[in-house]
Design goal:
The chain is mainly α and about 350 residues long. The protein is built from 17 helices and 2 strands.
Length: about 350
């Protein structure tokens, strides 16, 4: 049921995307030639993703009996444009050249610059990528500002979106700064990054937006928000695990990027805490090494296994998943079938490998 729901959700959101961007083609094209190219690029880039956040808008609305009308679909599409904005900028900050199994947006601009005879193409690509992300964010806000819904709901929705995007930005600042500072980071501080950078934005926000548009009460929205936080923290821990253990073909980008970038993940924090003095010396030469080798990554994996860190984080994810499950099961006055979809998503979130 979950797979068919997500496939259908992606289909209807993808079908809405060209219409929303086409409405803005004339304006974008009137500015300069980059505008029309960018609209087409954002459509392709956004539709290449899983569209989980957009699907969760539909799910949050459907739980409270709101049909998939234009306002719901436009909100879902706006969430995906916000996701594109964050991913484009994230790839620049992380120096990732791949995203979703293809060149990242700034890398594509570098290649385009080389082909068209531009100078300083690395800087060109970064600069155009920043611009592309900015435009994607404001296209999303433009779409949301034009929703056909009650003024009170629209004000609530816009406030929720802007507050969460601000939170993502501030959490990202912490995440980035952690990677550049030699000091170790407390697990609590890492979890707060997970909560504000991933959890609330990925799950809490879209579920709550759908529920707001469906007219759900504040208590219901608060419960969805809490469910989303638990699911989001599991999602991020799982992402860290996948980045360590799965192949590049499976995850759409180079494996070991978190190690290469010295990302302060829970895997890293627990490993450094448990490692012997000799292990710490070797690990200090691996984390943050831009020339990370397969042997280096294998050593990190072996130490994680030897110190029981993967098992420890499995237990942590199981606990968070159980908390979310109890809350989902306690939801009343909702569509029973869609509550089942949310429970399936919870289980998939815990078990996924890509």
């Amino acid at each position: 049921m979950l797979n068919s729901y997500l496939v259908n959700a992606k289909l209807v959101i993808s079908q809405r995307f060209p219409h929303l961007l086409h409405e803005r083609h004339e304006y974008l094209q009137s500015v300069n030639h980059w505008g029309l190219d960018l609209a087409e690029s954002l459509n392709e880039f956004s539709c290449r993703g899983k569209m989980i956040r957009g699907a969760l808008v539909l799910l949050g609305a459907g739980l409270y009996e709101r049909p998939q009308d234009e306002a719901i679909l436009d909100t879902a599409a706006a969430m995906e444009l916000l996701q594109s904005f964050l991913l484009i900028h994230d790839d620049i900050m992380d120096e990732d050249l791949q995203r979703r199994g293809a060149p990242s947006v700034h890398a594509r601009y570098v290649a385009q610059g080389v082909a068209d005879g531009y100078q300083h193409t690395e800087h060109l690509g970064l600069s155009l990528g920043i611009c592309a992300g900015d435009v994607s964010a404001f296209l999303a806000m433009d779409i949301l500002s034009r929703l056909d819904c009650e003024d009170k709901s629209l004000r609530t929705l816009l406030s929720m979106v802007t507050q969460e995007i601000i939170s993502v930005g501030v959490a990202q600042m912490n995440d980035v700064s952690f990677g550049f500072h030699p000091a170790e980071v407390l697990p609590h501080d890492i979890r707060e990054v997970y909560r504000y950078k991933t959890g609330r934005y990925t799950f809490s926000l879209p579920l709550s937006l759908g529920a707001v548009l469906a007219g759900a009460d504040e208590g219901a929205i608060a419960r969805l928000h809490e469910i989303g936080e638990y699911m989001g923290i599991v999602f991020q821990i799982k992402d860290d695990e996948i980045g360590l253990y799965e192949s590049g073909d499976d995850i759409g980008k180079a494996p070991g990027s978190d190690v290469r970038e010295n990302k302060k993940t829970l895997y890293r924090a627990y490993l450094v805490e448990a490692a012997s003095a000799d292990e710490r010396v070797r690990l200090s030469g691996i984390f943050g090494n831009r020339q990370l080798t397969q042997d280096d990554l294998a050593y990190v994996q072996s130490r994680i296994e030897a110190h029981g860190i993967r098992e420890r984080l499995d237990t942590e994810m199981d606990k968070l998943t159980d908390q979310a499950r109890r809350l989902i099961e306690s939801l009343d006055g909702v569509d029973v079938e869609l509550r089942g979809v949310l429970l399936e998503l919870l289980a998939y979130n815990r078990a996924r490998r890509r």
